[in-house]
């Protein structure tokens, strides 16, 4: 069978996560997020954010995190501004609209939003009350195309949002990868300071399942549990989520795993560059988009799986390569060997 | 006070409509759309469409017609394709999304949709079930920028929609104006044949209030009354809507009024052309968009009201002029006199 | 044809309302509720409530008023408490639930809610966040079974609601009738003081169409226009609603019409009593529920229409008789003559 | 620390489930439910139901299963009939209403629904289209109060539902317990035959997390994946659910675990009976409701945790005792010893 670089959720959990589950398995715990492990994991995350007043809730997936947070924060007449590559705009089957809210998709070359993009949407919606009111800005970090935000970019966005009375929400399905790039200058503390809320992805970084919704804006924390329950996200065995996040954040495992994934991707990027390949976009996280000829794609496809991301006009195409905490050196080396053989 | 060309709903109803209301005022009638006038008006409209199996329902406004029809026709995971100038995409405060459905807005130069535009949206949503499913195409006739569909355009769209298992819905807030252009080749019968459903606008063409939702696709007719009631559209005194549509469709008044509005607009268009002004777009309905210098705009603004529609790069701007069934010759003549004086 | 006592919306509008429409018909006005008549009508209503800080919005029907107000006021996890005879609980086709909110229906002998009824619902929902949170109390005045609230009852409810952090909302589809009973001690001012919001019914008291939503709680007034638009209630020709309410509230016509309706009902109630009939419930508004034998029902049915309201165990049944502003003395006298002939 | 009989989700997963997770952990698999384990588990369940044409989908929790299935099956104007003890009516924070649908709660002594209960709701909603349309019947097996359905009861309900054009949906959070009572005569095959859809609970019977939604009615199967995705239930690592259900259904573990839970409860029931205690209701599943004096409750509370279920008029109260797959003989014996000491 071919080795897959198609996504970062092809394996189960990091072995330490499974061990923690086994170790605690038979201790009786309270249900619905009131177990000792969830409480401990919340404390660990708040400590690492240096943000004691943030609220932390664990849910089972990213679409769920997005739809619950956004629908809890907004009134019926309020809308969301996102990049048109944003997961909620294009890859969640209308989940946000299903809760009643419009999502404006803005074209973005690099998958990131800038204040001027958002301002244009606001300017085009000044016929009150005939046009929907923009109230929440949704960004992804790292983005769906592998790019990530620098500190000044996030700060500018947050300042803009505060000025315009908008909430800033970050989808952190791959936040670990964003934080562990070589050129990253953002910390968890910065993210606690410069967003109203975000979620911290576990599924794609070592957990079996689980995302941590973190609400920094105190005005948005109230009665959030009702929303979790109403949308079907409050697990009877919340311990499953708590113990995993406890293990990931106990001693830095979360960061190590993301760093590993990034390094594997960067090794592959170098190999592609050395072989003379251009990248569709410049990324430093666990996603790379090398541009190959059809012949090169065919050659690499013999032993490896990956997605064709975008066909280009000259018959070439960008492929998408994803690495993860589980990507072994052995497979990276084997892939590099094949890349070296490309003409 | 200035005379207003800002919209086509500045006056009340055509006098004959008021007379009909007064004449029938004290006859006791059944409530909730089961009055004699509504039943008669339904028959008149079906006769003129030559479509006995269509279903006709009267509601009080266009946003209401759109949101009830669309939410009744779709399942939760289905979305709507519209032009980005479409009323539901930009001017109904998120009404469709509030019923749970995504609206895809497609850029359109002339406000009309073509099959290839819709196909592009479908092509970009093939990652099932992660991406929402397109199920209904929304068009406006005449469009929000004054253009209108020709018969072959509508037929092509409908054929495409049938092939792709999409519903075709037409917003006819200004359908009378579309049907009464000089170059129109569409009849009500064609619209019954080439749409799954549409609404026929009364508010902007002689009624005090009222739109007729017409469902041609029999599969979509079932239990529609529940949706009217649930969304607050089933008027206790449905007679108010029935009597107006009866009067408008009894002897052609509806068409006369739309023709009048169009003629007044065409007279003004000629005057602007004679004065050397270009139009932003070529329209034959009751909306025109002459391009003027700021000086010219100032001159015309002394005695007349209208909207600045779009600022252009050279300091000029397109204004929007709307005429209606109520626009008197006297005001058109007075405006033309001022247009002639433009330099 | 039989004369109908089935409902209070069988005729059109009071002639003065039609005259006002005709008189103002061709004056150009702003659209969407910004016409002179709506502004004037808002002022008149606020003056009569002695509540300058209330906000007044006109919509076309009662279900629409209920669903817009309630969905605008509540967050997704909040529910409504109503009597199980309440219009929203049983006769609006799930309109409130369609906006996402549960309605708790409480059994009530007389159609009115008491604080202890509401407390029981709250007590049964203390498993937070697994159970929905009660946030709004819905009452009707007059109720769906013709009873009405006295001042101390309303004040007690409002005090209770404030204590429990609940909103109090009154459905006033027949508020005129409640205010014009002989034993009423409530004024519009009291209702402004003792509710967070209510609506004042026009459709059933002289208007062609129209209800006035009145928001007394300032915290609930913000951005209400968006909700009107999003739910399809913002009429292009808002003048239609404004002019009617202006006429009804200009010189007391609204109260006169309701008083007339009540008097006609009370005359019929006396006649039934004189004929030896019991009433199902004691009402002083425009609804009465005399209990008749099947023979008596058959006799009255020859010339008059009314609903069988409730079959009783002994073969008798309560019928429902509704009168309105339009019920003429002639018909009341004729009906009384037949009642006198009952055995 | 006290040993808890408060619920059946206090521990993690059955050890064999954890072992299966560990064993398969690093095999690369497709995401979103297309992994080998999910496909295998679907086959196993369909085989055991003898219902090859059923569709099986795995989700993470019971509220999620209920809200997705019900909202996927219903049109906007359709409602649900449930017992007033039903989980969706009282313990899911308005989850069904949040998807737009009314739930009618019917009083039921034993937590079960009978055809005549449902008929009464239908009879009371014949004012079409002013009243919501009943379309789905929701039952729980075992019920929220520990009772369970016999085969003829389920068959009668299903026959009734077919006659009335209603869907029958069973909440099987504790279906294993229902199937393993001593007097049960229902098989999985019967449930496939006599419901339109149901869910099979894993969380409370040996899994870490997970419920299997099973759709028997072919007309309801179409495009169900969209609903899973839109409501946030489609896990990237669907393998987590698949491997668990594979292990539970591979060789009967699911049934063994439920039988164990029931046996432990029955031992405790006998002990309470021997001690002279009455039961609030007669149950044969893993829930029992012995009636105790306050003194007895205090005595048992020293070493054991349980809920006070219902206070009775005479100062006594029914407590709720829940057992699970994890309840050890040692704790049951210890508890029985204390029960024997009750006076």
TrEMBL record, chains A, B, C, D:
The keyword Endoplasmic reticulum does not apply. Its cofactor is pyridoxal 5'-phosphate. Keywords: Aminotransferase, Pyridoxal phosphate, Transferase. It holds the Pfam family Beta_elim_lyase. Residues 31-289 form the Aromatic amino acid beta-eliminating lyase/threonine aldolase domain. GO terms for molecular function: transaminase activity. Belongs to the threonine aldolase family. This is Aminotransferase class I/II-fold pyridoxal phosphate-dependent enzyme. It comes from Kaistella pullorum.
């Amino acid at each position: 069978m071919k080795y897959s670089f198609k996504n970062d959720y092809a394996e189960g959990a990091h072995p330490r996560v499974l061990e923690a589950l086994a170790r605690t398995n038979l201790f009786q715990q309270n249900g619905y997020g009131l177990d000792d492990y969830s409480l401990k994991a919340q404390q660990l995350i708040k400590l690492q954010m240096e943000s004691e007043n943030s609220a932390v809730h664990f849910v089972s997936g990213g679409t769920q995190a997005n739809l619950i947070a956004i629908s809890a924060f907004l009134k019926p007449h309020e809308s969301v501004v996102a990049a048109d590559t944003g997961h909620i705009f294009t890859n969640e089957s209308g989940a946000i609209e299903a809760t009643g809210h419009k999502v404006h998709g803005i074209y973005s070359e690099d998958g990131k939003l800038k204040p001027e993009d958002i301002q244009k949407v606001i300017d085009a919606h000044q016929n009150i009350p005939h046009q929907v009111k923009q109230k929440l800005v949704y960004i992804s970090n790292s983005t769906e195309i592998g790019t990530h935000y620098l500190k000044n970019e996030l700060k500018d966005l947050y300042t803009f949002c505060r000025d315009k009375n908008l909430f800033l929400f970050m989808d952190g399905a791959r936040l670990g990868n964003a934080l562990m790039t070589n050129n990253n200058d953002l910390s968890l503390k910065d993210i606690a300071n410069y967003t109203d809320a975000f979620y911290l992805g576990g599924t794609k970084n070592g957990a079996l399942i689980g995302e941590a919704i973190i609400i920094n804006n105190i005005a948005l924390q109230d009665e959030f549990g009702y929303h979790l329950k109403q949308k079907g996200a409050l697990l009877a065995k919340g311990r499953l989520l708590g113990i995993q996040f406890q293990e990931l954040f106990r001693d830095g495992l979360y960061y190590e795993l993301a760093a590993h994934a990034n390094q594997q991707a960067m090794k592959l990027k170098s190999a592609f560059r050395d072989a003379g390949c251009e990248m569709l976009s410049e990324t430093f996280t666990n996603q790379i988009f090398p541009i190959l000829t059809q012949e090169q794609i065919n050659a690499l496809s013999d032993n490896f799986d990956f997605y064709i991301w975008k066909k280009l006009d000259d018959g070439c195409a960008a492929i998408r390569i994803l690495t993860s905490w589980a990507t072994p050196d052995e497979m990276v080396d084997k892939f590099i060997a094949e890349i070296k053989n490309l003409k």
